[in-house]
């Protein structure tokens, strides 16, 4: 299990995460939702060790370093110039001293031209290439920042099927998305983050409640903002 307890993080004195608790179990899919700027990416980056927490604890229950067990799909994958898709995958595997498998099957299923420069890929293809680099490494956990972003409908469906298959194989997956429908279709639990705090964690049985709660809170926020914007009656 991946455990996050009482995590706090601030940038330049501005709190971004406040006492966040989260548990990611093996063989489960956990969704993370929240408004733009709620702190989702920061939470994923803290979990993967890209940002040191200001306070709190993050650990894997076996005691092994999280980076050994988990792969991160960034929101916007970056690739060095003049490196082909295949070379990128090979580089990722060699950096972790893992054998390079035959990538032909993956290239066909994901429709990725692995011999072309990755920097020339479309946004969706870049996302798929970064995902492939994680898939071939057989991680125990996947941390996915907006994995559906940029994917067309058919790849979206393929990713849904792929994530379900990985869950069956025991992989623990934490993913963010603004596509609530995809998350409720897929996840075992969904955490709502608001202003850096866990508002509530919903098990699948309560997902119907989640949609109406989110609608309520959005409408309340927007109505309050509107009241401030509209001129007061003279
Ligand atoms: N490296 C950084 N330095 C300073 N501020 C940062 C940094 N990274 C994030 N922030 C700030 O932290 C807050 C949360 O950002 P974060 O990217 O985690 O939100 P998010 O929930 O992922 O948003 P979105 O849905 O738009 O992707 C924002 O106010 C952002 O400007």
From TrEMBL:
The keyword Transport applies. It comes from Hymenobacter endophyticus. Gene3D superfamilies: P-loop containing nucleotide triphosphate hydrolases. Residues 2-220 form the ABC transporter domain. SUPFAM superfamilies: P-loop containing nucleoside triphosphate hydrolases. SMART domains: AAA (SM00382). One of its GO terms (molecular function) is ATP binding. InterPro entries: AAA+_ATPase, ABC_transporter-like_ATP-bd, ABC_transporter-like_CS, ABC_Transporter_VariousFunc, P-loop_NTPase. This is ATP-binding cassette domain-containing protein. Keywords: ATP-binding, Nucleotide-binding, Transport.
């Amino acid at each position: 299990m991946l455990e996050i307890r009482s995590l706090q993080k601030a940038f330049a004195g501005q709190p971004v995460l406040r006492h966040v608790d989260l548990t990611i179990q093996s063989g489960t899919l956990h969704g993370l939702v929240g408004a733009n700027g709620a702190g989702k990416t920061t939470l994923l980056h803290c979990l993967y060790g890209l940002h040191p927490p200001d306070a709190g604890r993050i650990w894997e229950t076996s005691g092994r370093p999280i980076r050994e067990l988990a792969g991160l799909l960034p929101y916007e994958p970056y690739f060095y110039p003049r490196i082909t898709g295949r070379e990128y995958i090979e580089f990722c595997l060699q950096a972790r001293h893992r054998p390079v498998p035959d990538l032909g099957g993956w290239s066909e299923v994901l429709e990725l031209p692995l011999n072309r420069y990755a920097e020339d890929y479309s946004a969706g293809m870049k996302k798929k290439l970064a995902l492939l680099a994680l898939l071939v490494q057989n991680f125990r956990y996947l941390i996915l920042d907006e994995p559906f972003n940029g994917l067309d409908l058919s790849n979206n469906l393929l990713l849904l099927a792929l994530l379900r298959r990985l869950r069956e194989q025991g992989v623990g997956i934490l993913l963010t998305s603004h596509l609530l429908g995809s998350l409720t279709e897929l996840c075992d639990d969904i955490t709502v983050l608001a202003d850096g705090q866990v508002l509530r964690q919903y098990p699948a049985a309560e997902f119907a409640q989640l949609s109406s709660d989110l609608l309520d809170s959005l409408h309340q926020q927007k109505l309050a903002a509107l009241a401030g914007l509209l001129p007061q009656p003279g």
